[in-house]
Amino acid sequence: MARRVTIRDVAREAGVSTATISYVLNNKVSESITPETIAKVNAAVERLGYVPNLSARSLRYRRSNLIGVVIPQTEPGKEFMFSNPFYGDFLSAVEYTARTRGYRLLISGTSVGQSYVEIAQNHGLDAIIILGIYPSDDIDAYKEAKIPLVLVDCYRNDHFFHSVGTNDRHGGYLATNHLIQRGHRRIAFVSGAVEASGVNQKRLFGYRDALDEAGLPFDRNLVFSGNVGYEYGIETARQIARICPDVTAIFATADIMAAGVIKGVSEAGLSVPGDISVVGFDDIFVANISSPGLTTVRQNIKEKGRVAVELALDAVDNPSSPKRDVAIPLEIVERDSVRSL
Amino acid sequence: MARRVTIRDVAREAGVSTATISYVLNNKVSESITPETIAKVNAAVERLGYVPNLSARSLRYRRSNLIGVVIPQTEPGKEFMFSNPFYGDFLSAVEYTARTRGYRLLISGTSVGQSYVEIAQNHGLDAIIILGIYPSDDIDAYKEAKIPLVLVDCYRNDHFFHSVGTNDRHGGYLATNHLIQRGHRRIAFVSGAVEASGVNQKRLFGYRDALDEAGLPFDRNLVFSGNVGYEYGIETARQIARICPDVTAIFATADIMAAGVIKGVSEAGLSVPGDISVVGFDDIFVANISSPGLTTVRQNIKEKGRVAVELALDAVDNPSSPKRDVAIPLEIVERDSVRSL
């Protein structure tokens, strides 16, 4: 086994003092440490694969050095929490950042009727990163238990917990406007469940914004919502091909669904983008692998994971600091699934 | 929040006593409990999404109810442990089975120079499931620390730890023979690093077995090994198209590489399966999404994850029981990436 990388190695690599390394990694950054120095330290940590000594930190701060990550399970008995590969990509990014800060992840798909607060208390979790809950879900138990929580992709805005997400309404606008700019007028919207203040509702608002801006009518019959998954994408595309012959483009709000849409269009005897153009959302690797390559709204998943961990550690270190809502920027990535009319 | 599902609900659903449920879930199965009953119990647990009461179990057995899962990181600073989606699928299956047994997962990509034994001891892990280590790696520290370990895809055979894997040599034979039966004679082999007694070496042996059986010569120039990844698949396919014009088929030892091979063949102006047939390995969802659909050697990843957890719990509950090496069966799944010559 190779020699363990020490804080001294990192200091040498970054050209700063070990104290500076320690400040940066413990989120105790004062104004005297510049953003450039933080970037240098993070780059050196990454290059060398440095991991802080866990037991020393735990003893000093009385922490478990564990962060819980809760991945949504929508149905009892559902097995695969990564049925959407977005979660795997997000978890990879979270794990990497946590590891460089000396933290481990306790992951869990929640089961129906089970409180994660109990799990958090049993294992003494320092913080929890929670995905895919709706504003209507009950999180008061976390407040009472004083467990630092980071909400991911949740429009809650109660300023009690940090949150990280994207501007989903803007993302819906970007996707739809991209298609309108290329001459499409009849554009279907395909998503998972549209819940009040959920990401899909926001993306649907963005879809309507783009239609309104272009003076195009909103047609409720072109909105399809079901399960976020490859199979639902296939079914819906076949249905659209059958009953909506004037549709020339589909915006699917997750790449995994968009991949299914491409398959379904092909199964219906049509081609992408020859007959139907497709835009996805996320830019997971599926967008790259699908054929044709998928034009999509890219969210920087690596950055989202990194920010989620940084916010979690900030909540641990500075419990009384004001809570932040961080939005990761979005951009269109053009591949080969859209044609101009 | 829905009412918590209790052991009584599961007993009613399965039509057995609560004692039987408890025996099955605690791996204390005697001969009086039939395999049919075990299947009924597991089905009921799955249908209802039942999770045993963690704290009651912990108190009774003095356990952390935590299982560590270690995912390989081959390079310092490498971020994404799920660069091969196989790991995400495997982890999903492990998480689900662990959850139904009242266990949580502590996941970690290991970093260079870091001992996972220390992590296991700090967090009092009950057992560790470890992927992708080579027989030459040092695991004596786990023996000394008496930490139950389950080795996944490791040909170690020291009978000190349980292991679960597949017959990789047979898998290599199945893939290659499938191509030979369809008239292919010049078949390239594309894999990750071929290490002594690693899975890729076994698959290469299987490839040679099939060639030998058919009386075809083994040509070292048709063996390509690099990184297990989409990009390496693309590069290698382009190289094969350029320098090996007589190759009509490629066996890639991971679906993620095979997806890259399909892309690379297309970038070289050739078609799959028109010019080059492709067979993969794993049957992750990428095999289904790729276009054309990928013919591949299917390993039941869900079963592999389930067995890994069952073996881990067996090692915890019955430390002195003989160690088992479980092989998950393999089979060819035919899609559209192979044509007959």
Describe the structure.
Two copies of one chain form a homodimer. Chain A has 341 residues and is α/β, with parallel strands linked by helices. In chain A, 42% of the residues lie in helices and 17% in strands. Chain A has 13 helices and twelve strands. Chain A has a six-stranded parallel beta sheet, with helices on one face. In chain A, helix 9 links the parallel strand 6 and strand 7. In chain A, helix 1 crosses helix 3 and helix 10 packs across helix 11. The termini of chain A are far apart. About 2% of the residues of chain A have low confidence. At the A-B interface, helix 3, helix 4, helix 5, strand 2 and helix 6 of A face helix 3, helix 4, helix 5, strand 2 and helix 6 of B. Strand 2 of chain A pairs antiparallel with strand 2 of chain B.
List the helices and strands and how they pair.
Two copies of one chain form a homodimer.
Chain A: H1 7-14, H2 18-25, H3 35-48, H4 54-61, E1 66-71, H5 85-100, E2 104-109, H6 116-122, E3 127-131, H7 140-144, E4 149-152, E5 162-166, H8 168-181, E6 187-192, H9 199-213, E7 223-226, H10 230-243, E8 249-252, H11 255-267, E9 277-282, H12 285-289, E10 295-299, H13 301-317, E11 325-328, E12 330-333
Parallel strand pairs in A: 1-2, 1-3, 3-4, 4-5, 5-11, 6-7, 6-8, 8-9, 9-10
Antiparallel strand pairs in A: 10-12
Helix pairs in contact in A: 1-2, 1-3, 5-13, 8-9, 10-11
Radius of gyration of chain A: 22 Å
**Which class best fits the helix and strand makeup of chain A?**
alpha/beta
Please outline the major beta sheet of chain A: 6 strands, parallel
| Helicity range of chain A | 40-55%
SSE ordering of chain A: HHHHEHEHEHEEHEHEHEHEHEHEE
The amount of beta strand of chain A, in percent, is 15-25%
Quaternary class: homodimer
Greatest interface and its residue counts?
A: A-B, 64 and 64 residues
Identify low-pLDDT runs of chain A: 54-60
How far is the first residue's CA from the last residue's CA of chain A? 59 Å
Care to count the β-strands of chain A? 12
Q: What order do the strands of the largest sheet of chain A run in, or round the barrel if closed?
A: 2-1-3-4-5-11
Question: What best-fitting shape of chain A do the alpha-carbon axes yield?
Answer: elongated
Compute the number of helices of chain A.
Answer: 13
Give the averaged pLDDT of chain A, no decimals.
86
